[in-house]
Write a structure and sequence with these properties.
By secondary structure, this protein is α+β, with helices and mostly antiparallel strands. The chain is 20% helix and 38% strand. The chain folds into three domains: 91 residues, Pseudouridine synthase (2-Layer Sandwich), CATH 3.30.2350.10; 130 residues, Pseudouridine synthase (2-Layer Sandwich); 52 residues, Archaeosine Trna-guanine Transglycosylase, Chain: A, domain 4, CATH 2.30.130.10. It contains eight helices and 19 strands.
Length: 289
């Protein structure tokens, strides 16, 4: 059985759904799902679960993401990125010092209003579809967490690279637009590269073409991170050998471990379990079938 998480290097102009379709064909399985949408025009890390690894979705999807983005001052767009229609312009020139001075106000917990042209849903409808239909867009403001935000350097007049590590659900194009508003000069996101999604990084990402070649060479499994390794951020909890079958059958095991979520072992890896009030229960079954 071939299963695990593959870190895909998504190119611009390819949707996250397109990546899933390609991975299904390459790995010859329908049990495939990505860990967080990456906008079609963005590039970079898109972790994709294959086989039983899809059961880890809830444990991996909320991990922090790291992005490298180009912010362009002098024009704002209706989509807040380079693909949108220009709605405001300015001849003002922003200096690197001005940019660096406003960045601290965008770190920590901040409130964002997602762009109207987004996949975020309201009553089952995407905001993007509501915007195209000319309908009123509801206020979907929400808190997000910006763990770090810095200016990497200048790429030309009014163009800068910024790097940020942030929580799930953060819109980097909105961040760029809000930074422009704070400086008083319209801005949009000109380019976006996701360099990390939780433990999955750009250094270990594969293009669709590379994965297809690895399949031809019989090395496709080399591209996968095992379910056990993907869950390595959780503490390990070992149960007695006699508790293997009871645990696999969903029965609780008494333990002195603190309440929380763990990797569960009975000699070998069984999956993900939860400890509550002194009882450990296996919740996600990932042992060999």
């Amino acid at each position: 059985m071939i299963e695990g998480i593959v870190t895909v290097l998504k190119p611009p102009a390819m949707s996250s759904s397109d990546v899933v379709v390609d991975i299904r064909k390459i790995f010859e399985t329908k049990r495939v799902g990505h860990l967080g949408t990456l906008d079609p025009e963005a590039a970079g890390v898109l972790p994709v679960c294959v086989g039983r690894a899809v059961r880890l979705f809830d444990y991996l999807v909320d991990k922090q993401k790291t992005y490298l983005a180009e912010i362009a001052f002098g024009a704002s767009t209706d989509t807040q990125d380079a693909q949108g229609k220009v709605v405001e312009t300015s001849g003002a020139v922003v200096t690197e010092e001005e940019l660096r001075m406003v960045l601290p106000q965008f770190t920590g917990t901040i409130v964002q209003t997602p762009p109207m042209y987004s996949a975020l849903k309201c009553n089952g409808q995407k905001l993007y579809d509501l915007a195209l239909a000319g309908k009123e867009i509801p206020d979907k403001s929400r808190e997000v967490e910006i763990a770090s935000l810095s200016c990497v350097g200048m790429r030309g007049e009014n163009r800068f690279l910024i790097e940020t590590t942030c929580s799930r659900g953060t819109y980097i194009r909105t961040l760029c637009a809000d930074i422009g508003a704070a400086i008083g000069v319209p801005a949009h996101m000109a380019f976006l590269l996701r360099t990390a999604s939780g433990p999955f990084t750009l250094e270990h990402a594969y293009s669709i073409a590379e994965l297809a070649d690895m399949k031809e060479q019989g090395r496709l499994s080399d591209a996968l991170i095992s379910c056990e390794d993907a869950a390595a951020f959780l503490k390990r909890l070992d149960l007695g050998r006699d508790r293997r079958k009871p645990a696999m059958n969903g029965l609780p095991t008494r333990t002195n471990a603190a309440d929380g979520t763990y990797r569960i072992y009975c000699d070998d890896f069984l999956g993900i379990g939860v400890v509550k009030d002194g009882s450990a229960v296996l919740k996600v079954h990932l042992y060999g079938e």
